Amino acid sequence: MTDTIVDQALVSELKDVMGEGFSALVDSFRADAEKRLGALEQHLADADPEALGQQAHSFKGSSGNVGAVQVADLCLSLEKQADGGDLQQAPATISELRDAVQRYLSQVG
């Protein structure tokens, strides 16, 4: 996993292009991340690796779009775990993912 939390170049570009709208993007990401984290936890509780992998894949894409590098990296890890059918590490990965979202938001929000 990368130690890079934020793709500063992408965030800077988004701020330049979006201006004041960037804060709305961050707010939208915050709300979306909470929903996705809840869905990931539910799919894990349901022991549904296929749904978990799909949710992780989608979250990876949205995270990459806003420069949340570490979040996207953890989503990829979770996606691989789900695709392999081995969910033993998934609870720890989801916990790390929740922390990574908070680190990202604290740096850009």
Give structural attributes:
mainly alpha, 5 helices, Four Helix Bundle (Hemerythrin (Met), subunit A), single chain, 80% helix, 109 residues
What's the layout of helices and strands?
Layout lengths: L7 H11 L2 H25 L3 H17 L3 H15 L6 H19 L1
Describe the protein's architecture and organization.
This protein has five helices and no strands. It has 109 residues and is mostly helical. Helix 2 packs antiparallel against helix 5 and helix 3 (49-65) packs antiparallel against helix 4. The longest helix has 25 residues, at 21-45. The protein starts with 7 loop residues before the first helix and ends with a helix.
- Specify the biggest β-sheet: none
Number of strands: 0
Number of domains: 1
At the fold tier of CATH, the topology name is: Four Helix Bundle (Hemerythrin (Met), subunit A)
Distance between the termini: 23 Å
Supply the helix-strand structural class: mainly alpha
**Assigned CATH class:** Mainly Alpha
CATH superfamily: HPT domain
- Determine the mean pLDDT: 96
Number of helices: 5
**What Rg do the Cα atoms give?**
14 Å
The CATH architecture assignment turns out to be Up-down Bundle
Helix amount: over 70%
Residue runs with pLDDT of under 50 for 5 or more positions? none
Using the alpha-carbon principal axes, give the shape.
Answer: elongated
Strand content: under 5%
Give me the strand/helix succession.
HHHHH
